[in-house]
Amino acid sequence: MIKMKKIYIYICILVIITSFLFCINIFLEKHNQKHIDIVQEEEKKEEEEAKYEIDYKANQTITVKLCKSNEVVAMDVNDYLRGVLPSEMPPYYDIEALKAQAIVARTYLYRKIKYGNADDNADICDSSAHCQAFYNKEKIIEIWKSRGFDEQTINQYWKNVNEAVVSTYNQVITYNGDIIRAYFHASSPSRTEDISQIWGGESIPYLISVENNEAEDYPNRTSTVTLSFNEIASILNNAKILRGLVNANDISSISICENTTSGRVKNVLINNQKLSAEKMRTLFGLKSTNFTIQVCDNNVIFNVVGYGHGVGMSQVGADYYAKLGMNYIDIIKHYYTGVEVYTLETKEE
User: Fold this and answer.
1) From residue 205, how far is each of 176, 190, 308, 317, 338 by CA, in Å?
2) Other CB atoms closer than 10 Å to residue 293's CB: what's the count?
């Protein structure tokens, strides 16, 4: 009997020890799994942070090529942006629209820097045809004075510009962690353009056509260009973009043969040859590729809607949406699909 009791006690002790070891093992497994989860979370966080790393300081000094003088000057990036903003957008636009433009301009600049699109040993130039328009403060104030603005108005305009730049300090637009191609234009009533429809047909997910509303009293909302058959033939022959020479009689058959997905003109047919509407916009001085064609008395009349290439942010639209109460981040996300507004960290020397 005593022997049976001892065996029973040994079994109980063994069960207790086994249970204790089992509990310790479970505890260690949970602890290890928790540690693994923490490590994985930290690694994921590091990956998220790493994808936003930019190979330049957010508050750096940049170089700008002044095209008229062929001079390259160094300046603080924020002084540069204060010069770009009123050169590209009216300073009386709603402050949220100005903030959106400031971020677009900063993004445009930093993509130039990141991808090495330098211009003659400069980070960027002051030509709107090649980069972004830029005037220094003195020139901007001179322009405002020449337009009849009084000192109080000029001070308010400069305050607007400064607020837009300073309040968005170091903010840029990214898509999947990369600086975007921050294209913008003046006006595109109804819809913006999908970049895949022009400039070689490359598809970019954040530069697709989106609905757009604008103020109807914008002065350049509509425009008309009239050119004679002879003028068009001369322009085309000088540009040498069609096969062989064209004459005035060839121009009489001009017609739209293809439209983009947003409704703009994609290609025009002249003498059985295709000519891109984007090329025509440049050659014929049209404000946009959203036009109709009317042939009348040896003249071609282009009735144009909007101003600019139509890709990315519409400035007139940005002002319209800002006046409706949208903030600058919402405006940016409306025009650039799937993007984020990211604040760069200031890097020390």
Assistant:
1) 11, 20, 20, 20, 8
2) 13
Nearest-CA neighbor of 220 among 272, 185, 247, 252? Answer: 185
Contact (CB, 8 A) for 186 and 315: yes
Judge contact between 97 and 332, C-beta under 8 A: no
The model's pLDDT over 68-116, given as tens digits with 9 standing for 90+, comes to 888 899 999 999 999 999 999 999 999 999 999 999 999 999 999 888 7
Handedness of CA 93, 97, 99, 105 (dihedral sign): negative
Residues 6+ apart with CB under 8 A from 146: none
Residue 338 CB: number of other CB atoms within 10 A?
11
Question: Which string of b and e fits 95-110 if b means at least 16 CB within 10 Å?
Answer: bbbbbbbbbbbbbbbb
Q: In the chain, what is the greatest distance between 2 CA atoms, to the nearest angstrom?
A: 128
Rounded CA gap, 17 and 5, in Å?
18
Residues in the chain: 349
Tell me if the pTM is above 0.90: no
Beta strands in the chain (DSSP E): 61-66, 71-76, 124-125, 171-175, 178-179, 184-185, 190-191, 211-212, 222-228, 255-259, 265-270, 273-276, 291-296, 299-305, 313-314, 340-343
Strand-pair partners of 226: 301
Phi, psi of 218 (to 5 degrees): -60, 125
In whole angstroms, give the CA distance from residue 124 to residue 117: 8
Q: What is the pLDDT of residues 189-242, one digit of tens each?
A: 999 999 999 988 899 999 999 999 999 999 999 999 999 999 999 999 999 888
Closest CA to 93 of 340, 313, 347, 342: 313
Element (H, E) at 20: helix 2-50
Nearest Cα to Cα of residue 235 among 224, 245, 220: 245
- Using the structure block, give the residue that is written with the tokens 């047919």: 269
Contacts of 239 (CB under 8 A, 6+ apart): 283
HSE-up of residue 7 (Cα within 13 Å, Cβ side): 4
Residue 149, number of CB atoms within 10 A of its CB: 17
DSSP 8-state assignment for residue 193: B
